[in-house]
Every structure is written in C-alpha cells, then in structure tokens.
Description:
By secondary structure, this protein is α/β, with parallel strands linked by helices. It folds into two domains: 6-170, Rossmann fold, CATH 3.40.50.720; 177-266, ProC C-terminal domain-like fold. 54% of the residues lie in helices and 13% in strands. The chain has helices spanning 13-24, 39-49, 57-61, 76-90, 103-110, 142-153, 166-175, 177-194, 199-219, 224-231, 237-247, 250-269, and strands spanning 6-9, 32-35, 52-54, 66-69, 93-96, 116-120, 130-136, 156-160. Strands 3-2-1-4-5-6-7-8 form an eight-stranded mixed sheet, with helices on both faces. β2, α2 and β3 (52-54) form a beta-alpha-beta unit. It starts with 5 loop residues before the first strand and ends in a 9-residue tail after the last helix.
Amino acid sequence: MSGRKIAFIGAGNMGANLIAGLVNDGYEPQKIYASSPDEEALNRLSTHLNIHTSIDNKSIAALADVIVLCVKPQIVPVVLKELAQVIQERQLLVISIAAGVKAGLIEQKLGFNCAVVRCMPNIAAMVRSAATGLYANDNTTEIQREIAETLLRSVGVTVWVDDESKLDVVTALSGSGPAYFFLLIEAMQEAALELGLSEKEANLLSLQTALGAARLALESPDSVVALREQVTSPGGTTERAIKTLESGSLRKLVFDAMNAATARARELSGLDLVSKGD
C-alpha cells in the first residue's frame, strides 16, 4: 500500500480513527486526504495529523488511488453519484465502512464493475483494538485486498469472510459485541457494589479482570473452553458462579441476542437505498 494516495470521504469518528491508525503505523500523512462538510473536524485532522483536507469530495477523489467511504448509509447513494465519474475514470478501489450498504449497490450507483471491499470495524478502533470483518467482491484483486487489510489492521485485527451475508453475523458479533461486554462489566460492578466493594474498587477490578481475560484468551494456545476449565476448580467459588450462570440459560440468552442483532442487520441491509441520490 506504500505510496498510494488514500481519500477518506467522511471525517467522523471512524474515519478519523482509521486515519490516525495509518499515521501511527508510519503511513505518510501527505498521502492521506479527507473530506467532510464539518470544517471543524477537518481542521482537527489537519492540525493534529498533518493530512490534506477539503470540503469538496470530488477534488480529493481526483487525487486518490483508493476511496474510503466513511459516511452514513443513507448518504452513500448521493456520494456515489457525485463521485461516479472520477472513480470510473481512475478505476479506484472503493473501501466502504457504511453499515448495511451492499457491494452490489455500490457497483450499481457507480455504473461499472468496480472493486469494492466492505468492512465492519467496531468502536475499539478508537484504541487500535478493533475486530474487523472484511468482504471483497469478485472485481477486487489480491493487491487491492492487501490494501484494504493493511488499512484496517492499522486499528486492530482483521478477518476475511467469503460470503457478503456473513457481514451481518460479524455485525452481531464484533460490531455490536463491545456493548455486550460493557453490559456484563456494568452488571459485575453493580453486584460488587451491593456486596460491599467501593465504586473505585469495583470499577478497577472489573475492568482489569476483563482486560486480563481478553489478553489471556488472545495470547494463550489454549481454547477459551480450556481456559474456563482451568479457572473453574471443582467445588470452588468459580464453579458455583458458573453453575448459576448456566442455570439461567446464559448460552441461550447470548444466542438469542446475537440472532436478534443478525436479523436486524439483515433488515437494515435490505432497506431500499437504490432510489436515493437519483
């Protein structure tokens, strides 16, 4: 990806996080461009990261080798209509983080068989610990896949899926997933308070416990099942707690929650955006 000019259409939180990730990874700021109607956001990016900025989408797209769509899904058709000519003339790779906007719609709005990579990063991109699912359409070359992967790996880990519909499951797992863990931590903190710990003690211990468990699961060669069994000594405190969670049908509750999130993601991806921007 070295040397390629990248234009971010949209400079909201996720776009800014991706730009910061690239710069922190050593990517040359002068090869990064960002556009947005929010001039204050552009000024922050220009000042802190030394990248090029503009309120004009077309002007930065005309300089780019790669387009990264970081706008809201309902705005995508309008933006694509505006950029269609320059993207087609320059045969640009389009990387989209717009939730629910299918690759086929992007091709349709651009009017040609363009290379499209859809990505689903999560909020942890803010601390360069995102978990991102990626899907590439059939027009995307291996080099273009590498470009997209390098970009998203600057803010965390990446996983490619071979079927676009799997991105809906990715949305339910890693896209919405941080909220599940926040809720569990919240519940643990509340329980600790009721059982006698101070707010400071409950907050610090619960957060560090969550961090430690995640790091151990990532770095250990053992599966999470094996790790859970190692912590769960027969007749001990953890075993009693786990049995209580299991008796409350925790696994079914998690499945039902993720199934509901997946269903909602599919509903959203099926919304009629085709006519918008015509």
